[in-house]
Specification:
The protein is mainly alpha-helical and 226 residues long. The chain has one domain. It has nine helices and no strands. The termini are close together.
C-alpha cells in the first residue's frame, strides 16, 4: 500500500525514539537493581534519582507510542485497518493510564512530602500501582498483539511481527503477578516491555528508514511504498 513521506517520517521518528527511550529505561533500571535495588524491600519502586528518571522516560514513551500507532494505522493495509485501529485505541488507554499515574508521582506526589521524597503511591498493594499494571500489562500487551499483524510481509516484517507478538504475550502474562499477589510473575511483563518492545521498535525504525525504501521488493512487505 501507499506510504506517504509524512507518515513514514512520523513512524521512523517515533520508533527510533521509543527504541532509545527503551534502552535508557533498561539501563537506568539495571543500574538501580545493581546498586542495591535487588536487596530493597520493594524492587519495583526505585529510589530517587532513579525513580524520577524512569517516570520521565515513561511519560515520553507514552507520547511516542501514541504517535507510532497513529502512523501505523495510517499506513496499514486495508485488511489490517481494524487491527491497527484496535492497537491505537489500546495505546490511547495505555498512555492515559500510565501518564496520569506518573505525572502525579512527579508533581503532587513529591510536593506532598518535605524534601521532595515522593509519596509511596507505587508501593504494592496500592490502587495507583494496580492502575499502572493495568496499563503496562493489559493495555500495552493488547496494543502490541493487535499491532503485530499490521506487518504481514516477509523478511524484516516477520521479525517485527514475531517480536511484537512475543512482547505483547509477555506483557499479558505479567498480569498474573498482581492478580496472584506474587509480583515475581510481573518480571514476565518487564521482559516484554523493557526488552522485547524496544527491540520491536528498533526493527520498525529499520523498516521505515529511507535507505530501505528503494530496495524493498513488491512481495517483501504488506506496507508498500508508492
Amino acid at each position: 500500500m501507499s506510504v506517504s513521506t509524512p507518515e513514514r517520517r512520523i513512524a521512523l521518528f517515533s520508533a527510533r525514539g521509543l527504541a532509545g527511550v527503551g534502552a535508557a529505561y533498561l539501563l537506568t533500571g539495571t543500574i538501580w537493581l545493581l546498586s542495591g535495588g535487588l536487596q530493597s524491600a520493594d524492587p519495583f519502586r526505585p529510589a530517587d534519582p532513579f525513580l524520577a528518571i524512569l517516570e520521565l522516560l515513561i511519560l515520553l514513551s507514552a507520547l511516542l507510542l501514541v504517535a507510532l500507532m497513529a502512523a501505523l494505522h495510517a499506513v496499514a493495509p486495508p485488511d489490517r485497518k481494524t487491527h491497527a485501529l484496535a492497537a491505537f485505541a489500546f495505546t490511547l488507554l495505555f498512555a492515559a493510564l500510565t501518564s496520569s499515574v506518573h505525572f502525579v508521582m512527579l508533581t503532587s506526589g513529591r510536593q506532598a512530602h518535605l524534601g521532595g521524597t515522593p509519596a509511596p503511591l507505587l508501593s504494592w498493594p496500592s490502587p495507583a500501582m494496580a492502575v499502572d499494571f493495568l496499563a503496562w500489562d493489559v493495555c500495552l500487551g493488547l496494543a502490541l498483539l493487535f499491532a503485530a499483524p499490521i506487518f504481514a510481509g516477509r523478511g524484516l516484517e516477520t521479525g517485527i511481527r514475531h517480536t511484537m507478538f512475543l512482547s505483547g504475550t509477555l506483557c499479558l502474562a505479567g498480569v498474573l503477578g498482581p492478580a496472584s499477589g506474587d509480583l515475581r510473575l510481573q518480571w514476565l511483563a518487564i521482559v516484554g516491555y523493557a526488552v522485547g518492545f524496544p527491540v520491536a521498535c528498533a526493527l520498525v525504525a529499520i523498516r521505515f528508514a529511507p535507505e530501505k525504501s528503494s530496495t524493498r521488493g513488491a512481495d517483501e512487505s504488506a506496507l508498500r511504498d508508492p
